[in-house]
Amino acid sequence: MFTQAEIKELRKDFPALNQVNPKNGRPPVYLDNSCMTMKPSAVAEAEWDYNTKYPACGGHRGSYWFAEIVHEKVEAARAALASLIKAPAAKSSEGKPLYPIIFTRNATEGLNLVASTLGLMPGETVLITDKEHNSNLCPWQEFEKRGGKVIILATKADNTFDMPAFKAALAKDRSIKLVSLNHSSNLDGVTNPLQQIVKAVRDTEKKQARNIFIAVDGAQSLPHLPLNLGEPEAPGFLDVDFFAGSIHKMLGPSGIGFLYGKPELLDCLPPYMVGGSTIYETSAYHRPVYAEWPARFEAGLQNYGGIIGAGAAVKYLTSILPRIKGYENHLNGILTDVLKPLHAAGKIRILGPEDAHQRGGVLTLLAPERPEGDRMRALREKSWQHNLMYRTGHFCVDVWFSTRQDKLYPAYTPIRLSAYFYNTESEVETTAKVIREIFA
Amino acid sequence: MPTKTLPHPLTADPFDRTKRRLFELYRMGSKPYHAWFHGYAEITARCSNNNLHAYGLYVGIEKGVITRVGYTKGAGKARNAASTDEVHASVAAFCGYVKGKRIEDALAVDMKSILSHYGCWNGHSPGLLKTLERSRPEDLVQFKATTPDALFSLALGGGLPFVLLNWAILNYTIKNELVNIVGDAAQPFVRFKDVNQALKLVNALKNHPALGAQRRAMEIGVRALQFNSVDDSSLRLAYQRHTFDGFAKNANAKGFYILDRFLLLK
Fold this sequence. Notes:
The structure holds two protein chains of two kinds.
Chain A: H1 4-11, E1 29-30, H2 41-53, H3 65-84, E2 90-91, E3 97-98, E4 101-104, H4 107-117, E5 125-129, H5 138-145, E6 149-153, H6 163-172, E7 176-182, H7 194-208, E8 213-217, E9 242-246, E10 257-261, H8 263-268, E11 279-283, E12 286-290, H9 304-344, E13 349-350, E14 362-367, H10 374-386, E15 388-389, E16 391-392, H11 398-408, E17 413-418, H12 425-439
Parallel strand pairs in A: 1-15, 5-6, 5-7, 7-8, 8-9
Antiparallel strand pairs in A: 2-3, 4-10, 9-10, 11-12, 13-14, 14-17, 16-17
Helix pairs in contact in A: 2-9, 3-9, 6-7, 9-12, 10-12
Chain B: H1 15-27, H2 33-36, E1 39-47, E2 52-62, E3 65-73, H3 85-98, H4 103-107, H5 111-117, H6 125-134, H7 140-146, H8 149-157, H9 159-182, H10 195-206, H11 215-223, H12 234-253, E4 262-264
Antiparallel strand pairs in B: 1-2, 1-4, 2-3
């Protein structure tokens, strides 16, 4: 939890929040944090430093002044990220710590990497939920085209995870080889009980004497929750095999994400993209022998500026992460309190559990108008007047919308308000009141 | 003091030439080299003086007996790797020693057996080995002047071929299981007909002391065999990585003391 005075101080680090719109003289009210967060000055400065002071290539391509700085900073960013999620360090063949973090463009690429390299075969099944982002749907739909099967587990009526149905599916279908699901949903902010899910999977493995892999889309959870992916003795340990995240949702530059994998699994995983950096040796007479990870999965020149910026973002986030969830819940409580009467009266529908504490910083509502009519137009005008920035649409959760919303609420427009730690109480109050004014 | 020495690296038949010849034959439609050589292992190590040592070891096995054996010093990028005569001589010596032996006898190799094979073992050897074990890198130059070449070479470099041989046999074990499941040993690249074949291989390797310990990782490695050969697969890199420490310890226990002065690169 933060006080408003602390938030005021923190906001000074975010230049984008300290400007006014020249058209109306008002500051921004940014509530699309599930998509992209603002960046603190430290991140921009780290990227600026890369581009102006040592804009060379990393990955030990060169052993000169600039290249060494880039290499050190990239590895420092990798170490910082590993530390944030408590990922275990392996030992490189040269005896140095090796952090099981693969830099990707985003969580989407991380999940595609898993889908492409895990070696799933026709006849096997991937289990996902109906609240997956398309990033965690389309790779498996492609797998379906190759003879695989995808089970889409429906969430409960309040959009929370259906544990009994999940356990039943695991017990019934021995072809399930991978459980791939979101940790927190970008649809409604609900966080899945990942520890219990993992336990159910591991118990099934033991009972059925076979391996089941677990991949997690963590794009929406890591920016808000401290996680433990590598310390079994510490509280909250999540024994997952793969965990994908997006740095642009956690204060960092866009175009950078990561994939965590258990070190022993990364050892065996074949390369995803191949080319420069991924090679240990190749020749006209040999098939290629690939390098050890992370190089094996980071083909070609990387976005070094972005990765170094990611390091700065992680450093910033690390200091405040334990306090974020409580404050976001508090903001969501304010939003929910203002809009709940409209929900009760059937004028809007709030998605997910009524209790704001179960929805992180996200409040998604279905506004009773589709296609856009007078009220949605009025909302848009009001939003421009107050510089309110939020998201409408399907948020790339097309499975849920095609199976649930279209049947239950066909004439509604979804609106998602997603707060982060730099939002103020007055910002969310203003937003909620604008919505209430229009739809009451 | 023994007067015989190990086969000198320059006079030994390095596998490079053989492999190139077989490669050419393969291109002309003849049997590929993997039809002769069933077990393969490769190591790159950085010596304490920062030189790179890269070796591949190949064994051909028929009815449990190692009938063919060869090695290659360096390949591709590692072709320019430096080498010490001692390591090179050790690899050559191992190849000479294991040829014609049953697998279990070859794996039981220790300093005494290999030196005896070349007629280099005598009463002085145990004491010299103990001295060598206690020596510091800077003592080696002086020590070399007073130690028989064969003993010195094997003590210094014997750990590498020992590990390579163990890996090559692991490699052969996997291929053997593969042939039982998929059939056709002459096929260079694995083609699982369906997932059941892959899972059969996982089950077959599950109880192997070295491979079974990798559990879930081993399953990923097996799946990664599809359309690859065992030799160029991530499975090989992974089991080499995971078993190196254990085999290195065994090598030390068998008298090949100075392996820990090398760092494995992959």
